[in-house]
């Protein structure tokens, strides 16, 4: 039994859909993750590989997910069931629902730190002349204190629930239409401020200095994993959003717009963070502490630094919220479509259940590390692999291209079919294989 279209909801316009899907893609992955991973991998080499990964794997898988969703007008489990009746394929949708639930749990913890930091910035708690050690202690005080961390995670989860309970048009689309323009303006202002600081050129060079000799297999794997995560792929989030779109809209154009927006924002995040770091004479840190430990030590070295801090953490919070709603929506849509729960009940119950998984993540770095490992590293790559195999070999590229052509399409879909049948599954299988090989060999010592 599948809920009918009227009770499922629909995006009101193509612009609303693009803003919502871009909002899902643009998130902590772009602003918190991308810059520190780039720093970890020596800057430019990672950036170059990331751009290749987006074009080769990201855009093709994005179009596959969107076409599955729009063709069926169903959330992931129902979508696979409709296109491959009486098969095991709906399990791929179920894996997606579980993955969305788990990713939302650790995502809310990091988003919770962001709420905490926004609060600190708004109440002028960043002292001037703070040393790296002092900043580290502040971050520890927040992330290392289970109580504070859980409190801010709860605040963030409630925000997410409040948007998703409003439904597609009245909740997700409406929030995206307000938040995304604010986000773009803040981002633009921060980038302009950062690149006009003295010594900004050092930061820009750092980001775009493509040192090919720095490339290692690990960097390639990291770039691929990051491309999937950043575009919200591998678990059916884009299947779900696509299912709320009508057949009149140009799906290929919308998908490419979303990918371009997401990639530009990742690069802009680098253009905002590295020039500020070089201006302050600090070092880019290649770990999660980049935006929570390094940045607070340089805000006061910038003109109007506290304003910069407020704008930055507000930006990060908006990015996180428009992404977390897409994660919760995947889980909620399953219960609304396939189990006939009301949206109100699904949103609260599942949001609270997810918070219960977030609590141990907030309390224990080790636990959070395991959840990230399983779901960010393995589940998304396995999900992406299965989605490619499904689209290329089971549903078939002819049907998928037919769907992509409805409402316009763009030239080059023949090339897309080749990528989704051959290139993407092979690369995704290599990611999964290499990761499992690494895991097994490390266990064998
Ligand atoms: N893309 C988001 C980010 O970059 C995170 C995200 C939202 C996500 N929905 C997703 C990741 C679905 C994977 C799958 O922060």
Principal-axis shape: globular
Number of strands: 0
Strand content: under 5%
The major β-sheet equals: none
- Terminal Cα span: 49 Å
Output the number of helix runs.
18
Q: What is the C-alpha radius of gyration, as a whole number of Å?
A: 21 Å
User: What value does the average pLDDT take?
Assistant: 94
Helix content: over 70%
Order of helices and strands: HHHHHHHHHHHHHHHHHH
Uncertain regions spanning at least 5 consecutive residues = none
Structural class based on helices, strands and sheet pairing: mainly alpha
Task: Say what oligomer this is.
Answer: single chain
- What small-molecule ligands were found? tryptophan
């Amino acid at each position: 039994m599948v809920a009918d279209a009227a009770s499922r909801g629909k995006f009101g316009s193509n612009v609303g859909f693009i803003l919502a899907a871009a909002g899902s893609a643009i998130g902590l992955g772009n602003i918190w993750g991308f810059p520190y991973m780039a720093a970890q991998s020596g800057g430019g080499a990672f950036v170059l590989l990331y751009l290749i990964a987006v074009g080769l794997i990201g855009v093709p898988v994005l179009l596959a997910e969107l076409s599955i969703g729009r063709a069926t007008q169903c959330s992931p489990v129902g979508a696979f069931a409709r296109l491959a009746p009486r098969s095991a394929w709906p399990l791929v949708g179920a894996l997606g629902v579980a993955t969305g639930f788990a990713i939302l749990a650790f995502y809310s913890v990091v988003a919770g730190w962001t709420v905490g930091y926004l609060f600190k910035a708004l109440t002028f708690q960043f002292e001037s002349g703070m040393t790296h050690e002092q900043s580290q202690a502040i971050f520890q005080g927040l992330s290392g204190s289970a109580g504070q961390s859980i409190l801010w995670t709860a605040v963030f989860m409630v925000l997410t629930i409040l948007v998703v309970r409003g439904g597609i048009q009245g909740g997700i689309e409406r929030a995206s239409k307000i938040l995304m323009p604010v986000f773009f303006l803040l981002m633009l202002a921060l980038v302009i401020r950062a690149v006009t600081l003295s010594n900004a050129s050092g930061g820009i060079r750092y980001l775009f200095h493509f040192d090919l000799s720095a490339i290692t297999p690990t960097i390639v794997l990291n770039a691929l994993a990051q491309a999937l995560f950043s575009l919200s792929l591998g678990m059916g989030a884009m299947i779900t959003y696509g299912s709320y779109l009508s057949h009149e809209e140009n799906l290929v154009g919308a998908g490419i717009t979303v990918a371009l927006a997401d990639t530009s924002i990742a690069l802009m995040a680098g253009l905002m963070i590295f020039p500020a770091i070089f201006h302050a004479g600090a070092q880019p840190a290649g770990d999660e502490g980049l935006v929570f430990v390094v940045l607070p030590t340089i805000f006061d070295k910038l003109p109007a630094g506290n304003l910069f801090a407020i704008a930055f953490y507000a930006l990060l919070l908006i990015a996180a919220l428009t992404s977390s709603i897409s994660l919760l929506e995947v889980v909620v849509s399953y219960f609304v479509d396939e189990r006939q729960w009301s949206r109100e009940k699904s949103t609260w119950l599942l949001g609270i259940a997810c918070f219960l998984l977030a609590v141990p993540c907030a309390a224990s770095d080790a636990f959070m590390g395991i959840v990230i490992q399983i779901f960010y590293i393995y589940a998304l790559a396995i999900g992406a692999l299965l989605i490619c195999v499904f689209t290329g070999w089971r549903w078939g590229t002819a049907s998928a291209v037919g769907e992509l052509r409805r409402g316009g399409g763009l030239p080059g879909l023949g090339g897309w079919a080749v990528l989704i049948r051959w290139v993407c599954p092979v690369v995704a299988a290599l990611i999964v294989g290499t990761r499992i090989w690494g895991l097994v060999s490390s266990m064998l010592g």
